[in-house]
Amino acid sequence: MRNPQLNGHGELQHLLTIEGLPRDILLSILDTAAPFTEVAEREVKKIPLLRGKSVFNLFFENSTRTRTTFEIAAKRLSADVINLNINTSSTAKGESLLDTVDNLAAMHADMFVVRHASSGAPFLIAEHLARTGRDHIHVVNAGDGRHAHPTQGLLDMYTVRHYKKDFSNLVVAVVGDVLHSRVARSEIHALTTLGVPEVRVIAPKTLLPTEVERLGVRVFHDLKEGLKGVDVVMMLRLQNERMQGALLPSRQEYFKEFGLTQEKLDLAKPDAIVLHPGPMNRGVEIDSAVADGGRAVILPQVTFGIAVRMAVMSMLAGH
Amino acid sequence: MRNPQLNGHGELQHLLTIEGLPRDILLSILDTAAPFTEVAEREVKKIPLLRGKSVFNLFFENSTRTRTTFEIAAKRLSADVINLNINTSSTAKGESLLDTVDNLAAMHADMFVVRHASSGAPFLIAEHLARTGRDHIHVVNAGDGRHAHPTQGLLDMYTVRHYKKDFSNLVVAVVGDVLHSRVARSEIHALTTLGVPEVRVIAPKTLLPTEVERLGVRVFHDLKEGLKGVDVVMMLRLQNERMQGALLPSRQEYFKEFGLTQEKLDLAKPDAIVLHPGPMNRGVEIDSAVADGGRAVILPQVTFGIAVRMAVMSMLAGH
Amino acid sequence: MRNPQLNGHGELQHLLTIEGLPRDILLSILDTAAPFTEVAEREVKKIPLLRGKSVFNLFFENSTRTRTTFEIAAKRLSADVINLNINTSSTAKGESLLDTVDNLAAMHADMFVVRHASSGAPFLIAEHLARTGRDHIHVVNAGDGRHAHPTQGLLDMYTVRHYKKDFSNLVVAVVGDVLHSRVARSEIHALTTLGVPEVRVIAPKTLLPTEVERLGVRVFHDLKEGLKGVDVVMMLRLQNERMQGALLPSRQEYFKEFGLTQEKLDLAKPDAIVLHPGPMNRGVEIDSAVADGGRAVILPQVTFGIAVRMAVMSMLAGH
Question: Which residues of B touch A102 (CB under 8 A)?
Fold first, then answer.
């Protein structure tokens, strides 16, 4: 079975998930992103690689933040960007996902950036396009349910490589709500593909998927234990809806056990870096002193994220 | 009384309704649209005809789908597009329709694409602009109440001409909720203006306007009878709000009587084509087998719709 | 203490409020705006001064009207514009104001146009950017709480100068709900800075701030008295929420006492002009005969407003 993300020549056709993406493709995205970080520092932050291309931000789940990153990336590539916020709960004039896609494809779309609350929606779209002979339209997954958020995973890898140069000798810890996190899944797949020898997950038992070890990670239920000797700490966002649920005691108690403070961070290596996908819950999963401290690379992540998205878009649809 | 859509030289000034639009203007829009279908297939889908022009999508009624078609058409013509979704039910800061128009006109708007739940709103705007000496601003009706949806009617004509070449020997059936449909009205006016010798409407009595025969159509209340010998089937959308009302028995019963199935379509001519303005209610007014079948031209309609909107916009305001 | 709006060379760094802005800066904005009024009348309304710059419309309070003026101004300067409507009441995924700003700044923003219900929010952002060494990002206040709306004040000054040529011999009256109006505050500061010898405020006692005289104005509680001999009448919008409150008797009674009618306007100088920031409540603070009459310059205000915003944006971030 062919990887649905690659075309017949083994080139990137869609970006749906990091799982199963070959190492050389991952590295080539990171390499392509590097010069785009310079574009953002120019007086005129614009290059014509996607000029005259139509990029549709197809957001079935509202996310101003993520939509903004893709919109700015596409505009800096000179694409025409159309934002569609499609409220799936409003069924007043509802049509099926695939009818919506067919309709936009018929407008000569070049790319769909898809965000959806249901895992697998971007796959469904990519398969539908392939089955109906419209392989020239590209799909980028901007987050689907609990499944994947590949551009977040990629920008995290870009950030790690920027600060640590080499993946082959790192200990990386992913901390927090792994169970519900598409970010965690994308990060773990990327880290193992890129050859990180030790990937740890640190979380309470209630926030870990069953058989998480199968992903090739070491499991810790104690933050202090798990942070010992770590090079990179990847914090996860604790979603508000989880905090109100039965899975967790209280915000305060969660912070006490799994919130990253400077004291706990001191157990990691002295030059350890801290990542967070944002938006942060200060005082829940991360202490402000750490978030704003010298070892956080949270804002550089955002900067690199634009470059990585420009890289993906231009690899898929660039002139 | 001069046609408010034409200027003193008989050229298109606004596009408000197909009713009363001369045949040569209709044909010239279709002719202008033809080369724009090629623009959409280029590597760079962009031409500078509206460069530096300000197009306002003035949507008093929400319609992501229609707004998207106008937005992409205007952007491919290189216009600056501003989307305004004005919720008329929110009166918190409400100002009158004409004050809103005056305000935007004062920003040197070149074109208003207007969608409004009230029939006649785009006319009101065009008249106001004329009365106040601002004839250089153009109005395009993107659907007003139950009245008209002229670009939909035009793209349907483009589609019919594309597949059938000539209007003068066709039998065309418009099927469904004619009573509440601005699309039906625009289609019927366009078909009769372009010389289609037989236009039929097929609908239950409760979904037909009184004295519909005055529009120059033959009336059928039986779908099978009405489809016999037809060249073109134009399906209408059955709006959800109708289905919940007292006008109709149930979705199932409606489908049984007026839903287009392959079996019923076989009563039309062997090369009959099926149009639908979208979004479709599969299993209500149309069966999926027909919607996705070889005689449906529903997605080409969407493609041609972009070209037709580019044609209208460039005829109105192009350099 | 340095003026946070000016850089080390005394040039405009942010536009936060007219209060404390030097007279020569005010005049230089008006002078810069003049040629931009011609751009709006060109066939191609576009100049490349902000090409490749990223302007974020950061609206924490919804205002389609104000957002539109900044969007069209930025697009005519060829900027890439990203609209963000951030509903502060929705705390589902809420992050702090400054985390949002940090995040967008990390995307290499060049300018934030900020609208916020809380007075001082744009200052907070400007201070935060300065403290964190990101002075190259500019902040424009598009209205903050009851505090300031400087571009409205500036476009009012542009309008006054356009019609009256000279500020030094004018009597100007600001009429209406001064208490809750950020527009009034900006206007009063601008008028006094530009040397208008007599600025009057005319309002019922309940709609005036305590010690309003400290702003250098003459106070009137009777509209007829206050209008006598006036050159310029600046009407304020009476916000609907005020009308429902206990501060005022009724719309009808307010109109009777403080609504501007032609009869009352005749008490002003024969060539007096009438301004209104919009949207107007016809029949509340202003009679339609005045709003649409020969002395109203309300639509020219809107036109000049685009030019003034283009001037401010290009002074801040232009090539």
Answer: 299
